[in-house]
Amino acid sequence: MSEHTNTTPTDSDEPGVTVRTHTELADALPYLLGFQPDESLVLVAVHGSRGRFGGRVTVGIPTDPADWAVVADAVTDALVTGSTRRHGLPDGIVAFLCREPGPGENGTTVMEYLRPLAQHLRLAAGARDVPVVDALCLSDHRCWSYCCPDPACCPPEGSAQKPPGTSAVAAAAAYAGMTVRGSLRAMQRRLLPPDDGGDPRWGTALDTACCNLLPRLVDECEAAEVAEETLTTTADLITRLHRLPRVKDPKAADACDDRAIGTEEAAAVIVGLQDRETRDRAAEWMEGPLAPPALRLWRALARRCTGAYDEYAAAPLALAGWVAWSSGDRTEARVALALALRADPDYLFALLLHHACDEGLAAESIRRVLRRAGKDRGREAVEVAGTADPATGGAGAAGTPDVPGREGGGDGKGTSPSRRRTVPLPSALRRPGSRGGKAVVPRPFGAGDQGAGTVRPGGAGLPPLPVRQRGGRPGTGPGGPRAPYGAGTGRGPSGQLPLRSSRHGRRSSGGRGPKGRG
Questions:
Q1: Closest CA to 500 of 328, 383, 331, 363
Q2: Cα 481 to Cα 14, 104, 276, 348, 351, distances in angstroms
Q3: What segments bear the compositional bias annotation Gly residues (predicted)?
Q4: What is the pTM of this model?
Q5: Contact residues for 159 (Cβ-Cβ < 8 A; gap 6+)
Q6: Do 511 and 498 touch, CB atoms closer than 8 A?
Q7: Which helix H or strand E contains 139, and what residues bound it?
Q8: How crowded is the C-beta side of 190, counted as CA atoms within 13 Å?
Q9: Which of 309, 303, 301 lies closest to 204 in space, CA to CA?
């Protein structure tokens, strides 16, 4: 086989890892992705005469072989289109088909079972004038090539892979600064509810929180109080997790966090985060010493969205993806954002973050927006406090609402659609066959924070927490512009995770476009 260098076309000045055999190529895959793929199809673009690795796309392998042709065409189009847009048409594609044997299977039977999928990939790539230079099946710690006919190079029983971390590729990758976060399934397990649904009290607490908070969330007068309560509870929980002793084992650390978070307060925060403006304020816990406990909190809340409340996980999952990205961990960010889109394919906040992360944008640009939004809220609060009329309670002239920057009365007419408060309903409360039912109430255009402040947790040197002053209206979150592409991604043909690429690949078409929520 030809040799390949594990660098992107734009990273040629950085240390690279050269692979020359099929087993070395298989050993390099976890370092290309940052995790060990499970039940996954991975495509990697190849550029230049030396075969430098570029964009890569990962998608779950559909359980129904009837979907393979559609998935192969979609994932190939995502890779080729994204790579062409950024660095020109790829000179080739390397495909990895990863699946562990099931009961009564071995690696050879898995390889033969996935052979039609490899053929669909070769046809899809050929239709786009890009050859598949190699297609490997990885199963049972062995690898097979669907493109190499030489039994001396690729024996029928497959080539054995070395244990993780012991190959020459692993040593070279470690020297180049590449790390592996573990398996994809293990990373997802930290963000998803337990297989048995978890504690039954979680669902009961969410039922109670919905009954108590949803009527208040859609009421203009009480929505600000719910937002304040949500952010205050969130600040308390982040402070509590920050003070816990550090636990190295991820499973034990998650269990420790779960014990530290009360059932009722977790349910109240989950429901409160369904308001997009409250969620945007919560996104300001993104850096400094409070970013790690904030990430742990969002993980813990996502794990509690079980049963009818699975779609409610989109908010904490998107926040987990944002904090991970802001902290420099793009691998976990992509996993969390993909899970958020699986929970709610129309969740605009996750769509925008997923697209920005895939396009290689700097998280600092979003952090600046959030910092500026916090400063603007504080400035507006000072201005309002200085101009308030004590006799009228700050309402100004008769018939004029207490809204900065707007003159005249407000009777609800002409309300901007972008300022409508949208709250999703749990699936148990929706009509059969409907998805994403929402309770909607118009909000006055230009409504901003009338009182914004910060609460500092215990401990010296910790950054302030963004919590509204009591009685203030929720402010406008950063939101950001719409994604530059058209429709967002939806569920794959077999309900798999949305396609994702570390640099160039786009999510597959066919999903539903954003509806403005999130």
A1: 331
A2: 33, 51, 15, 10, 11
A3: 448-461
A4: 0.66
A5: 21, 22, 23, 142, 143, 144
A6: yes
A7: strand 132-139
A8: 25
A9: 309
